[in-house]
Amino acid sequence: xxxxSLVPYLPDLARGFGVxxxxxAGGAAxxxxxxxxxxxxxxxxxxxxxxxxxxxxxxILGLPILVLLYLIYFVLPQAxxxxxxxxxxxxxxxxxxxxxxxxxxxxxxxxxxxxxxxAARMIGLNPVQVFARILLPQTLGLMIPPLTGILIGLAxxxxxxSVISVHELSYVTKRVVSRTYAPFEVWALVAxxxxxxxxxxxxxxxxxxxxxxxxxxxxxx
Amino acid sequence: MDAATVPAAIAGEGLTMRYGAAxxxxxxxxxxxxxxxVCVLGPSGSGKSTLLRCxxxxxxxxxxxxxxxxxxxxxxxxxxxxIATLPxxxxxxxxxxxxxxxxxxxxxxxxxxxxxxxxxxxRVRGQTQREARSxxxxxxxxxxxxxxxxxxxxxxxxxxxxxxxxxxxxAMDPEILLFDEPTSALDPELVGEVLAVMEALAARxxxxxxxxxxxxxxxxxxxxxxxxxxxxxxxTAPAERFFSAPTEERSWRFLDQTMxxxxxxxxxxxxxxxxx
Lengths: 221, 276
Prior knowledge:
The complex is a heterodimer.
Chain A: H1 10-44, H2 47-61, H3 65-75, H4 85-109, H5 114-123, H6 127-157, H7 169-180, H8 183-220
Chain B: E1 10-19, E2 22-32, E3 37-41, H1 48-55, E4 63-68, E5 71-72, E6 75-77, E7 83-85, H2 88-95, E8 98-101, H3 113-123, H4 129-142, H5 158-171, E9 176-180, H6 188-203, E10 208-211, H7 215-221, E11 224-229, E12 232-238, H8 239-244, H9 249-263
Parallel strand pairs in B: 3-10, 3-11, 8-9, 9-10
Antiparallel strand pairs in B: 1-2, 1-4, 4-5, 6-7, 11-12
């Protein structure tokens, strides 16, 4: 084993890692925002919109993310929509993960008695206010554990974007391997980087959950 | 304006609610004048709560129309007379003219009593913290709970929670207050404090529709009684006459079963059978 041959490539790997982090953060933010839109649309929107969201959810739940990625990256341009690989990657993460996140959010807010929403509507709160002021504060602690799992899935799936040449950590790693001919050392190092990062993310979100539920327990009891 | 041209504070016309094959509300007409207190009585499942949900548009009726101060709810007619759905924001403003108090209080548990009362003032009326706080405290004082302003609902008794819910509805200064069995979820000894608040409102001629099983309250506070059964209005009459001499056999049977026995009101006269 020759670890020293890796040293010249560490800056490349660090850049790839940076891209992975940005994709994770960007993908998570977009997917979460889209999930909130899906939840609002299916709970407070017109009937037809709710139906369309259900159909969309069914389609996504039945597709591998790789297939969705190819559809977006290779098929959209044929329809005249030109799209860069990073945009295609973020779009894929958003489209693929938002229905899962929406399910997690919907599951949590379903625990709030419907009467509280009736009361909020009678007072005149709009759907966004009902979500942000009434539902979210009561259920944040409930939705963080499932969202954590989904978020970590999203972070891992950024590696799939390497197939369309997004220069994230896995893509860079493959190139480094082809230069160094040291697949074991390079992939072992990269595996360690992924593991440490994802474990840290998991721990951080657990901490957030703890803070949120601690507040809830002392606030309501 | 003479009485005939003043529109009802709230009116329902041909209100019908169907769930699949079941008709829960069957063409109900109701009109409540400004300052009038109407109690809706009737057996469970007669459509009383559904009537309130239709009037408040929490569940818009399958058929029929609701008017608030003469203005049709949820729709508007344009210049050509075509009827169009109201924009959501306009609709919310329109509905905020109706206040509602629920059987299960429906307070928001993460907010304090004052927070519950001021939420609409801050987010819907756009008041400043100071304005909302002052109005909120005034409302809490009016239901006798100024000292509980900072308590979360879980720390309040059922009766106190329902009084906060009444203060929350009142804070928005509604033209009509709807009460959906406001004391049915309460311990018997907590019923009185809620009814006292409602009686005070009635004495101030707040326009109210009260769905209730509290016959004594209806007899005491109502101007008019609406008696429902099987999704229809069976009888509507001034309270005094309804309780002493109902005109419908079905109302009489209901009263005979519920009132005299518990509250010592005189037994109502049985209506004469219809002429053959």
